[in-house]
Design brief:
The protein is an alpha/beta fold. It has helices at about 15-25, 30-40, 55-65, 140-160, 190-200, 220-225, 245-250, 260-275, 290-300, 325-340, 360-365; strands at about 5-10, 65, 70-75, 80-90, 95-100, 110-115, 120, 135-140, 175-180, 210-215, 235-240, 280-285, 305-310, 345. The strands form three sheets. The protein has a ten-stranded mixed beta sheet with strand order 3-4-5-6-9-10-11-12-13-14, with helices on one face. It is elongated and about 70 Å long.
Length: about 375
Amino acid sequence: MEIAHRKNILDLSYPQLKELVGSLGQPAYRADQIAWWVYKKLAVSFEEMTDLPQSLRRKLAEVASLSSLVPVDEKISGDRQTRKVLFRLDDGRTIESSLMLYEKTGSSRERRTVCVSTQVGCPVGCPFCATGQQGFERNLRPGEIMGQVLYFMRLVNAEQVGGEAATDSTRRPVTNVVFMGMGEPLANYEAVWQSIVTLNSKHGLGLGARQITISTVGLVPQIRRLARESIHVELAISLHAANDALRNRLVPINKKYPLSQLIPACREYFKNTGRRPTFECALFQGVNDSAEHAHELARLLESMNCQVNLIAGNPSACKEFAPSPMKKVLTFQKKLKDNGVSSTVRVSKGVDIEAGCGQLRSRLARVR
Protein backbone atom coordinates (compact mmCIF):
# COMPACT_ATOMS: atom_id res chain seq x y z
CA MET A 1 0.00 0.00 0.00
CA GLU A 2 1.37 3.43 -0.92
CA ILE A 3 2.09 5.76 1.97
CA ALA A 4 -0.25 8.37 0.46
CA HIS A 5 -3.17 6.07 1.35
CA ARG A 6 -2.10 5.46 4.91
CA LYS A 7 -3.76 7.23 7.79
CA ASN A 8 -1.38 9.42 9.74
CA ILE A 9 -1.93 8.55 13.41
CA LEU A 10 -1.24 12.20 14.34
CA ASP A 11 -4.21 13.27 12.19
CA LEU A 12 -6.61 11.10 14.17
CA SER A 13 -8.63 12.18 17.15
CA TYR A 14 -8.81 9.68 20.02
CA PRO A 15 -12.26 8.40 18.91
CA GLN A 16 -10.91 8.01 15.36
CA LEU A 17 -7.92 6.09 16.69
CA LYS A 18 -10.30 3.73 18.49
CA GLU A 19 -12.22 3.26 15.24
CA LEU A 20 -9.00 2.38 13.43
CA VAL A 21 -8.06 -0.15 16.12
CA GLY A 22 -11.55 -1.66 15.96
CA SER A 23 -11.36 -1.95 12.17
CA LEU A 24 -8.25 -4.11 12.68
CA GLY A 25 -10.19 -6.45 14.96
CA GLN A 26 -8.37 -5.26 18.07
CA PRO A 27 -9.79 -4.43 21.54
CA ALA A 28 -10.31 -0.74 22.38
CA TYR A 29 -7.48 -0.66 24.92
CA ARG A 30 -4.98 -0.96 22.08
CA ALA A 31 -5.85 2.64 21.20
CA ASP A 32 -4.74 3.69 24.69
CA GLN A 33 -1.46 1.87 24.22
CA ILE A 34 -0.81 3.49 20.84
CA ALA A 35 -1.66 6.97 22.15
CA TRP A 36 0.66 6.41 25.12
CA TRP A 37 3.53 5.52 22.83
CA VAL A 38 2.90 8.47 20.52
CA TYR A 39 2.28 11.25 23.04
CA LYS A 40 4.06 10.08 26.19
CA LYS A 41 6.96 8.00 24.86
CA LEU A 42 7.25 10.11 21.68
CA ALA A 43 7.61 7.06 19.44
CA VAL A 44 8.42 7.63 15.77
CA SER A 45 7.69 4.09 14.57
CA PHE A 46 5.27 1.28 15.34
CA GLU A 47 8.20 -1.07 15.96
CA GLU A 48 8.98 0.86 19.14
CA MET A 49 5.57 -0.06 20.59
CA THR A 50 6.87 -3.23 22.20
CA ASP A 51 3.75 -4.03 24.25
CA LEU A 52 1.73 -4.42 21.04
CA PRO A 53 1.71 -7.84 19.34
CA GLN A 54 4.18 -8.08 16.46
CA SER A 55 1.31 -8.91 14.10
CA LEU A 56 -0.50 -5.69 15.06
CA ARG A 57 2.63 -3.62 14.62
CA ARG A 58 3.04 -5.03 11.11
CA LYS A 59 -0.61 -4.33 10.30
CA LEU A 60 -0.38 -0.77 11.60
CA ALA A 61 2.66 -0.17 9.42
CA GLU A 62 0.61 -1.31 6.40
CA VAL A 63 -2.46 0.89 7.01
CA ALA A 64 -1.10 3.84 8.98
CA SER A 65 1.97 6.01 9.43
CA LEU A 66 3.68 8.12 12.03
CA SER A 67 5.21 10.42 9.44
CA SER A 68 6.73 13.50 10.95
CA LEU A 69 7.87 16.88 9.71
CA VAL A 70 11.29 17.17 8.11
CA PRO A 71 13.50 19.98 9.48
CA VAL A 72 15.30 21.76 6.63
CA ASP A 73 16.75 24.82 8.37
CA GLU A 74 17.38 25.90 11.95
CA LYS A 75 18.50 29.04 13.74
CA ILE A 76 19.50 29.30 17.41
CA SER A 77 19.70 32.66 19.16
CA GLY A 78 22.95 33.87 20.70
CA ASP A 79 21.58 33.34 24.22
CA ARG A 80 20.39 29.86 23.16
CA GLN A 81 16.94 30.60 24.55
CA THR A 82 15.17 30.60 21.19
CA ARG A 83 15.35 27.96 18.48
CA LYS A 84 13.51 28.40 15.20
CA VAL A 85 13.04 25.54 12.75
CA LEU A 86 11.81 25.51 9.17
CA PHE A 87 9.96 22.26 8.38
CA ARG A 88 9.15 20.68 5.04
CA LEU A 89 5.72 19.07 4.74
CA ASP A 90 4.81 15.99 2.71
CA ASP A 91 3.84 18.13 -0.29
CA GLY A 92 7.09 20.11 -0.24
CA ARG A 93 5.64 23.25 1.32
CA THR A 94 7.35 24.75 4.37
CA ILE A 95 6.30 26.13 7.75
CA GLU A 96 8.08 27.55 10.79
CA SER A 97 7.94 26.73 14.49
CA SER A 98 9.87 28.01 17.50
CA LEU A 99 10.93 26.76 20.92
CA MET A 100 11.38 29.52 23.51
CA LEU A 101 12.96 28.91 26.90
CA TYR A 102 12.12 31.09 29.88
CA GLU A 103 14.05 30.75 33.12
CA LYS A 104 12.34 30.87 36.48
CA THR A 105 12.29 34.45 37.80
CA GLY A 106 10.59 35.54 41.00
CA SER A 107 7.05 34.17 41.03
CA SER A 108 7.16 32.98 37.40
CA ARG A 109 7.95 29.36 36.67
CA GLU A 110 10.38 27.92 34.19
CA ARG A 111 8.69 27.55 30.81
CA ARG A 112 9.45 25.73 27.58
CA THR A 113 7.04 27.17 25.05
CA VAL A 114 6.43 25.92 21.53
CA CYS A 115 5.00 28.39 19.04
CA VAL A 116 3.18 26.50 16.28
CA SER A 117 1.97 27.40 12.81
CA THR A 118 -1.56 26.54 11.68
CA GLN A 119 -1.43 27.44 7.99
CA VAL A 120 1.07 27.55 5.15
CA GLY A 121 1.30 31.29 4.67
CA CYS A 122 -1.53 33.51 5.90
CA PRO A 123 -4.72 34.93 4.32
CA VAL A 124 -4.86 38.10 6.48
CA GLY A 125 -2.07 40.11 4.86
CA CYS A 126 -0.91 42.38 7.69
CA PRO A 127 1.68 44.66 6.01
CA PHE A 128 4.26 44.48 8.84
CA CYS A 129 4.23 40.66 9.03
CA ALA A 130 6.59 38.54 6.92
CA THR A 131 4.08 35.70 6.74
CA GLY A 132 1.32 38.11 5.74
CA GLN A 133 3.33 39.08 2.67
CA GLN A 134 3.76 35.45 1.56
CA GLY A 135 0.10 34.89 0.76
CA PHE A 136 -2.00 31.87 1.70
CA GLU A 137 -1.34 28.35 0.40
CA ARG A 138 -3.32 25.92 2.57
CA ASN A 139 -4.46 24.92 6.03
CA LEU A 140 -2.41 22.49 8.09
CA ARG A 141 -3.82 19.14 9.13
CA PRO A 142 -4.09 18.31 12.85
CA GLY A 143 -1.10 15.97 12.56
CA GLU A 144 1.04 18.70 11.03
CA ILE A 145 0.22 20.96 13.96
CA MET A 146 0.88 18.25 16.55
CA GLY A 147 4.05 17.21 14.72
CA GLN A 148 5.59 20.60 15.52
CA VAL A 149 5.01 20.12 19.25
CA LEU A 150 6.28 16.53 19.25
CA TYR A 151 9.45 17.51 17.40
CA PHE A 152 10.44 19.95 20.13
CA MET A 153 9.42 17.55 22.88
CA ARG A 154 11.87 15.01 21.45
CA LEU A 155 14.49 17.72 21.13
CA VAL A 156 14.19 18.76 24.77
CA ASN A 157 14.30 15.14 25.86
CA ALA A 158 17.42 14.50 23.79
CA GLU A 159 19.45 17.49 24.88
CA GLN A 160 20.42 19.38 27.97
CA VAL A 161 18.23 22.45 27.62
CA GLY A 162 17.96 25.32 30.09
CA GLY A 163 20.78 23.98 32.26
CA GLU A 164 18.97 20.87 33.49
CA ALA A 165 19.45 17.27 32.46
CA ALA A 166 16.88 16.23 29.89
CA THR A 167 16.71 12.83 31.56
CA ASP A 168 15.01 14.34 34.64
CA SER A 169 11.65 12.57 34.52
CA THR A 170 9.95 15.30 36.60
CA ARG A 171 10.42 17.87 33.82
CA ARG A 172 7.69 18.17 31.22
CA PRO A 173 9.50 18.61 27.88
CA VAL A 174 7.05 21.34 26.80
CA THR A 175 5.13 23.41 29.33
CA ASN A 176 3.18 25.74 27.02
CA VAL A 177 1.89 25.77 23.45
CA VAL A 178 0.96 29.00 21.71
CA PHE A 179 -0.82 29.17 18.36
CA MET A 180 1.10 32.26 17.28
CA GLY A 181 3.11 31.03 14.31
CA MET A 182 2.32 31.26 10.62
CA GLY A 183 -1.35 31.66 9.74
CA GLU A 184 -4.60 32.63 11.45
CA PRO A 185 -5.55 29.78 13.82
CA LEU A 186 -9.28 30.50 13.86
CA ALA A 187 -9.39 30.35 10.05
CA ASN A 188 -8.39 26.67 10.40
CA TYR A 189 -10.81 26.07 13.24
CA GLU A 190 -11.50 22.32 13.03
CA ALA A 191 -7.85 21.25 12.82
CA VAL A 192 -6.82 23.70 15.54
CA TRP A 193 -9.59 22.57 17.86
CA GLN A 194 -8.70 18.90 17.38
CA SER A 195 -5.09 19.79 18.21
CA ILE A 196 -6.21 21.57 21.39
CA VAL A 197 -8.23 18.52 22.46
CA THR A 198 -5.18 16.30 21.90
CA LEU A 199 -2.89 18.71 23.75
CA ASN A 200 -5.27 18.78 26.71
CA SER A 201 -6.46 15.17 26.78
CA LYS A 202 -5.12 12.47 29.10
CA HIS A 203 -4.82 10.40 25.92
CA GLY A 204 -2.63 13.12 24.42
CA LEU A 205 -0.14 15.43 26.13
CA GLY A 206 -2.23 16.25 29.22
CA LEU A 207 -1.41 19.95 28.96
CA GLY A 208 -3.54 22.29 31.08
CA ALA A 209 -5.93 24.64 29.29
CA ARG A 210 -4.15 27.62 30.85
CA GLN A 211 -0.96 26.49 29.15
CA ILE A 212 -2.54 26.75 25.69
CA THR A 213 -2.99 30.12 23.97
CA ILE A 214 -4.69 30.94 20.69
CA SER A 215 -3.70 34.22 19.05
CA THR A 216 -6.13 35.65 16.51
CA VAL A 217 -6.45 38.84 14.49
CA GLY A 218 -10.11 38.88 15.49
CA LEU A 219 -12.40 36.52 13.60
CA VAL A 220 -15.53 37.39 15.54
CA PRO A 221 -17.77 34.37 14.75
CA GLN A 222 -14.97 31.97 15.64
CA ILE A 223 -14.20 33.82 18.90
CA ARG A 224 -17.85 33.44 19.89
CA ARG A 225 -17.73 29.76 18.93
CA LEU A 226 -14.53 29.26 20.95
CA ALA A 227 -16.26 30.83 23.95
CA ARG A 228 -18.79 27.97 23.91
CA GLU A 229 -16.25 25.13 23.72
CA SER A 230 -15.60 22.70 26.56
CA ILE A 231 -11.91 23.58 26.95
CA HIS A 232 -11.25 27.17 27.97
CA VAL A 233 -7.89 28.13 26.53
CA GLU A 234 -6.18 31.51 26.79
CA LEU A 235 -7.14 34.02 24.09
CA ALA A 236 -4.82 36.66 22.66
CA ILE A 237 -6.00 39.30 20.20
CA SER A 238 -3.56 40.88 17.76
CA LEU A 239 -5.00 44.36 18.18
CA HIS A 240 -2.19 46.82 17.30
CA ALA A 241 -4.54 49.82 17.02
CA ALA A 242 -7.59 51.14 18.87
CA ASN A 243 -9.29 53.00 16.04
CA ASP A 244 -10.78 51.45 12.91
CA ALA A 245 -8.97 53.68 10.41
CA LEU A 246 -5.50 52.68 11.64
CA ARG A 247 -6.44 49.07 12.35
CA ASN A 248 -7.87 48.71 8.83
CA ARG A 249 -4.36 49.51 7.63
CA LEU A 250 -2.46 47.31 10.09
CA VAL A 251 -4.90 44.38 10.30
CA PRO A 252 -7.01 44.32 7.11
CA ILE A 253 -9.57 41.84 8.52
CA ASN A 254 -10.76 44.77 10.66
CA LYS A 255 -12.73 45.97 7.63
CA LYS A 256 -14.89 42.85 7.98
CA TYR A 257 -14.89 42.61 11.78
CA PRO A 258 -14.42 46.16 13.13
CA LEU A 259 -13.71 47.02 16.74
CA SER A 260 -17.44 47.54 17.41
CA GLN A 261 -17.85 43.77 16.85
CA LEU A 262 -14.50 42.53 18.12
CA ILE A 263 -14.54 44.06 21.60
CA PRO A 264 -18.02 42.74 22.53
CA ALA A 265 -16.95 39.26 21.35
CA CYS A 266 -13.91 39.46 23.67
CA ARG A 267 -16.13 40.53 26.56
CA GLU A 268 -18.35 37.54 25.82
CA TYR A 269 -15.30 35.26 25.85
CA PHE A 270 -14.41 36.40 29.36
CA LYS A 271 -18.02 36.08 30.55
CA ASN A 272 -18.35 32.51 29.25
CA THR A 273 -14.92 31.15 30.12
CA GLY A 274 -13.52 33.26 32.96
CA ARG A 275 -10.35 33.70 30.87
CA ARG A 276 -9.51 37.36 30.54
CA PRO A 277 -8.34 38.14 27.01
CA THR A 278 -4.91 39.53 26.24
CA PHE A 279 -4.54 42.27 23.66
CA GLU A 280 -1.27 42.23 21.76
CA CYS A 281 0.07 45.57 20.54
CA ALA A 282 3.22 45.59 18.43
CA LEU A 283 4.42 49.19 18.42
CA PHE A 284 5.98 50.78 15.35
CA GLN A 285 7.77 54.10 15.40
CA GLY A 286 5.53 56.95 14.29
CA VAL A 287 2.71 54.58 13.32
CA ASN A 288 0.84 53.52 16.47
CA ASP A 289 3.06 54.47 19.44
CA SER A 290 1.98 58.01 20.34
CA ALA A 291 0.40 59.22 23.58
CA GLU A 292 -2.90 59.67 21.74
CA HIS A 293 -2.76 56.05 20.56
CA ALA A 294 -2.31 54.98 24.19
CA HIS A 295 -5.29 57.10 25.27
CA GLU A 296 -7.41 55.57 22.49
CA LEU A 297 -6.48 52.09 23.66
CA ALA A 298 -7.35 52.93 27.26
CA ARG A 299 -10.75 54.27 26.19
CA LEU A 300 -11.44 51.18 24.05
CA LEU A 301 -10.68 48.79 26.92
CA GLU A 302 -12.27 50.87 29.68
CA SER A 303 -13.72 48.71 32.49
CA MET A 304 -12.75 45.52 30.67
CA ASN A 305 -11.07 42.70 32.57
CA CYS A 306 -8.10 42.17 30.28
CA GLN A 307 -4.34 42.40 29.89
CA VAL A 308 -2.34 44.33 27.29
CA ASN A 309 0.98 43.00 26.00
CA LEU A 310 3.22 45.66 24.50
CA ILE A 311 6.18 44.78 22.33
CA ALA A 312 8.39 46.66 19.95
CA GLY A 313 7.51 45.42 16.47
CA ASN A 314 9.86 42.99 14.77
CA PRO A 315 12.40 44.52 12.40
CA SER A 316 11.39 43.76 8.83
CA ALA A 317 12.28 44.54 5.25
CA CYS A 318 9.48 47.14 5.20
CA LYS A 319 11.07 50.39 6.40
CA GLU A 320 7.61 51.86 7.03
CA PHE A 321 7.32 49.66 10.11
CA ALA A 322 10.41 50.24 12.22
CA PRO A 323 10.17 48.98 15.81
CA SER A 324 9.47 51.63 18.44
CA PRO A 325 12.42 52.45 20.73
CA MET A 326 12.07 50.89 24.18
CA LYS A 327 11.83 54.37 25.73
CA LYS A 328 8.72 54.99 23.63
CA VAL A 329 7.25 51.61 24.57
CA LEU A 330 7.72 52.36 28.27
CA THR A 331 6.12 55.79 27.86
CA PHE A 332 3.17 54.10 26.13
CA GLN A 333 2.87 51.69 29.05
CA LYS A 334 2.86 54.54 31.58
CA LYS A 335 0.01 56.23 29.73
CA LEU A 336 -1.99 53.01 29.93
CA LYS A 337 -1.25 52.67 33.65
CA ASP A 338 -2.29 56.27 34.28
CA ASN A 339 -5.62 55.38 32.66
CA GLY A 340 -6.14 52.19 34.68
CA VAL A 341 -5.17 49.61 32.05
CA SER A 342 -2.91 46.72 33.10
CA SER A 343 -0.07 46.01 30.69
CA THR A 344 3.18 44.11 30.35
CA VAL A 345 6.15 44.93 28.17
CA ARG A 346 7.30 41.76 26.45
CA VAL A 347 10.92 41.35 25.53
CA SER A 348 11.46 40.16 21.96
CA LYS A 349 13.14 36.76 21.81
CA GLY A 350 15.30 35.63 18.92
CA VAL A 351 15.68 39.02 17.22
CA ASP A 352 19.24 38.07 16.23
CA ILE A 353 17.94 35.09 14.25
CA GLU A 354 14.91 36.85 12.73
CA ALA A 355 12.54 34.77 14.84
CA GLY A 356 9.52 36.87 13.93
CA CYS A 357 6.67 35.06 12.19
CA GLY A 358 7.59 34.04 8.64
CA GLN A 359 11.05 35.62 8.59
CA LEU A 360 13.07 32.40 8.26
CA ARG A 361 10.79 31.13 5.49
CA SER A 362 11.01 34.47 3.67
CA ARG A 363 14.80 34.49 3.91
CA LEU A 364 15.02 30.98 2.45
CA ALA A 365 12.71 32.02 -0.39
CA ARG A 366 14.95 34.99 -1.18
CA VAL A 367 18.01 32.74 -1.28
CA ARG A 368 16.29 30.44 -3.75
